Every structure is written in C-alpha cells, then in structure tokens.
Amino acid sequence: MKSLKFKSNLVEQILNGNKTVTWRLFDDKDLREGDGFEIINADTKEVVGQAIISEVKEKNLAEITEADYEYSHYDKETQTEMLEHYRKIYGDKVSLDTIVKIIKFKLSE
To answer: CATH number for the domain including 102?
Structure first.
C-alpha cells in the first residue's frame, strides 16, 4: 500500500474530515484515482489512518486558479509566494512549469 506523510496539524484536519485534498509535486509514487494509501504523521512517523484517492488533477503551477484552492489548507497565494513555499520543500528545481497533482481523497472506514 502507498503512503503519504502529513504534518501533525494537517493530520488532525484529515481525521476530523476538514482536509480532503493534498497537493504533491514530483510524484514518485504514481498516485492515481482509486489508490489506497496510509496516512502517516510526518512528525511522529505513526500510521494514523487510511484513505482512498477519489480524484487526481494534474497541471503546472502556472495554471493554478482560485478554484484549485477549494478544500485545500493553502491560503490563496501569489505565484511568487507559491514558488517560494514549494522551493522551501523541494528546492530550486521548482518552477512555474513544475507539475502539481491535486489529489482529492476520503478516509477509509
């Protein structure tokens, strides 16, 4: 089974149903609709639940629109702020041409 890591504050939002979308760059797991995954607390390394991917959209960062921020934990950012945010995580290889996967999911029972 695949796994995705989330910071503790996001794990809480996932488990209470408030967070149902994640954005992922450089997807080395080939995440697809219908895939199940373990939810891992990135801070404690603990598996806290399981979810199923219900939808995946791919676009480059330059194409992000206001509608893409719906149901995400991100505040609407300027392109410059978005690039700075992702460069802190992934390094200087992030550009407006970088593909982001917008992944909707639901908790498994």
So the answer is: 3.10.400.10
